[in-house]
Write a structure and sequence with these properties.
332 residues, 21 strands, single chain, alpha+beta
Length: 332
């Protein structure tokens, strides 16, 4: 019996030593990462890190976090980030986001993200590279606002990125109850006949990058897409319905080649929205309307588009006619 008690005592001492080393290592790695980012020219500030979670969980509570990447022009500020991980493998990380406003800045402007119960789950492969195995982000109700007011909001958010093989990742995204805010509706001059919220907004794709996602994605250049199989991108909003599927190969300059299948129901209203939002210059409205109406007639229904587009030589082709420059697909 005494021998068993000694064995249990030694195991408990060993576990306590492991937990202390892992907790200290987690805190030290966070502090070192912030220091490395500051040395690389980022803004990387936090007021403190609190630990805890003994005996089974590692906890790092970050307070007053401010990160800004000057090369990408992206920045985030939040009063709290809570990082937890099981003590037996710190590579399975859960990040709980603050319920308060999170400041976001990009080349498009400044805004605030507010979400209820925002949680990010991060699963990493063992090793110093910290290669990404899976990333998930879920939340309850959320909204994005700028100084003019609420731009978009939704009841839920589900994002996932799961490694299937090597540098191939399966991507999914879904937002239930997604809706433009009152400010956005006013800017788009949306009639009251258009519902407040989308019926469906979702995406499902497989993407092959030029290398796996790992710690270098934050410390150096982001992995770039080289092959995209977009199984479904769907937006249903009342009697507006847009479905896109695509198979693309992307070269080193970010220029895609391949095919895109597009279905759009009630496309004239979509053109109205594109024009009022500024995405479609008024001088091009008549030309776009004539082309799309001819295509719709070919599909048998003037209110529905069902077309296949080809991307090649840096342009988007409808049959043999180039209709627009191809977008460059580069992750900054």
């Amino acid at each position: 019996m005494r021998k068993l008690l000694w064995i249990l005592a030694l195991c408990a001492m060993a576990w306590c030593s492991w937990w202390w080393a892992a907790s200290t290592g987690l805190r030290g790695s966070i502090e070192a990462w912030f220091a490395d980012r500051a040395e690389a020219g980022w803004q990387a500030d936090l007021s403190g890190i609190n630990g805890g979670g003994f005996p089974l969980i590692l906890v790092a509570e970050l307070r007053d976090v401010a990160l800004a990447d000057p090369d990408a022009g992206l920045a985030i500020e939040t009063d709290r980030l809570d990082i937890t991980a099981p003590a037996w493998w710190p590579g399975d990380v859960t990040v709980s986001l603050s319920d308060g406003p999170i400041l976001l800045a990009s080349p498009l402007g400044r805004s605030t993200l507010t979400m209820s119960g925002g949680v990010m789950a991060l699963n990493l492969h063992p090793g110093t590279a910290l290669e990404l195995e899976a990333l998930g982000w879920t939340s309850g109700s959320w909204q994005v606002a700028d100084p003019r007011g609420v731009q978009v909001q939704a009841d839920t958010l589900t994002l996932s990125m799961t490694q299937t093989t090597g540098a191939t990742y399966a991507l999914t995204a879904r937002a239930d109850g997604f809706a433009p805010g009152d400010t956005a509706r006013a800017a788009l001059r949306l009639p009251e006949t258009i519902p407040r919220a989308f019926d469906s907004l979702q995406l499902n794709a497989d993407v092959i990058f030029d290398r796996p996602w790992d710690r270098r994605a934050l410390e150096a250049q982001r992995p770039q897409p080289r092959q995209i199989d977009l199984h479904l991108a769907e937006a249903r909003w009342g009697d507006l319905n847009l479905n896109i599927a695509a198979s693309l190969v992307v070269d080193d300059s970010g220029t895609p080649e391949g095919s895109v299948a597009l279905q759009a129901e009630n496309w004239p209203t979509m053109l109205d929205l594109a024009e009022t939002s500024g995405l479609l210059p008024p001088q091009l409205r008549q030309q776009a309307d004539s082309i799309l109406r001819a295509l719709a007639r070919a599909s048998g229904n003037e209110a529905t588009l069902d077309v296949d587009l080809a991307l090649k030589d840096g342009a988007v082709y409808l049959g043999f006619i180039p209709i627009a420059p191809a977008p460059r697909l580069i992750i900054r």
